[in-house]
Amino acid sequence: MPTTLRISDLPAHAGSTVAVNAWVMTTRSSGKIGFIVVRDGSGYLQAVVGKRDVAPDLWERFEGLTQETSVRLEGTVRADARAPGGVELSLSALAVLGPSVEFPITPKEHGTAFLMERRHLWLRSRRQVALMKIRHEVVQAIRDFFHERGFTLVDTPILTGSIGESAGTLFETEYFDLGKAYLAQTGQLYVETACAALGKVYCFGPTFRAEKSKTRRHLTEFWMVEPEVAFADSDANMRLQEEFVSYIVARVLDRRKAELADLERDPKPLESVVPPFHRITYTDAVAKLQGMGSDIVWGKDLGAEDEARLTDGLDRPLFVMNYPKEAKAFYMKENPADPRTVLCDDCLAPGLGEIIGGSQREDDYDLLLARIRAQGLPEESYGWYLDLRRYGTFVHSGFGLGVERTVQWITGTPHIRETIAYPRMMYRLYP
Ligand code: 4AD
Ligand code: MG
Fold this sequence. Notes:
There is one protein chain. The chain is an alpha+beta fold and 431 residues long. It folds into two domains: 3-98, CATH 2.40.50.140; 119-419, BirA Bifunctional Protein, domain 2, CATH 3.30.930.10. The chain contains 13 helices and 17 strands. The strands form three sheets. Strands 7-11-12-17-16-15-14-13 form an eight-stranded mixed β-sheet, sandwiched between helices. Strand 9 (172-174) and strand 10 form a beta hairpin. The longest helix is centred in the first third of the chain and has 23 residues, at 126-148. Bound molecules: 4-amino-1,4-dioxobutan-2-aminium adenosine-5'-monophosphate and magnesium ion (MG). Magnesium ion binds at residues 346, 354, 357.
């Protein structure tokens, strides 16, 4: 019995006879020579079979193969510079493991609605495989970045009793005799308190927003990584963000060239993503936008169009700093230089817009309580959070980076729905 290998391991076995378990993508035949292209998740492989070189029953099985049949191939690995991965397989045995009848997604074009209904099958296509691999690389880079820098991972709850961001986009559920529970919009408040225990921490998990918007960059369930650093101010926070984003991009450029090529994403523009990123204050940004014809008024959050205008043509992301208080969440620190604003930043990626929201936190008990009241939040559910300001309050900052937006930007994918295996959106709960 030849050794069973994954396709990605084949180049090191040129000349050997091996077995591969995989799914059939396409077949073609000249009548004398047949070709099978298969996928096993590690890569793509072409197997070649000569009608005269094999037993008639093998050739018959080859001719009966259909798209997505699972097969076991045996053959000799041949180096071939033109082949993907640099090798081909000269087939000597072929077993059908699981037949596949009329796979609905064929190499022709399908509409998005058709594909979304069959997301579980669509995932098998080359473009989706590339997206999932790049997503995996981004997630692994995130974990490595914080691990290498001495951060401790703290997992925060998904069922929560206090509102993390804003009352407007909460998913609620009844929680036994304790009233309402909310699906976490953020792990931030919890990770802030853990920061006082461990100094440098991060949480990384799914977060939920009942976004009633059908844009190309909103999901109702998305993954967010949120670091929090003790004794770090807003400037240090932005330096960490630009180092972090550059690290993720460099990692994908280094290790996922083949997948970027599958997506027809030109890696060139990503190569200039290195610190320092561009910086502009919110107030200057508004003036600039008004000069460009935007109807933005001071005090309002920037819309997608404004973000696009600001980043158009930039070689690397842009920090928009110090937004007005009324446009941002209650926990951000008042800016001593202009108390109408807070010490915060949004990191805008060229071509996509906001991928990070970050801020220095309000560390003054009275100011924080006043903000909770001013925003009409239920004060009684923040007692535990306010303890952070009672017992050794400290300067600290943190941010949240959305995984799907980051993958969308790096891969140049027009809509966020393709950056997660099973996207949850206002109109999508199936499959
Ligand atoms: O700006 P946001 O709302 O910030 C927070 O949640 C803070 N608690 C973060 C912190 O300081 N610890 O969200 C952060 C990021 C956004 O920049 C975006 O990348 C992503 O999360 N995001 C979404 N991604 C997809 N769909 C949505 N509906 C998103 N909402 C936010
Ligand atoms: Mg934000």
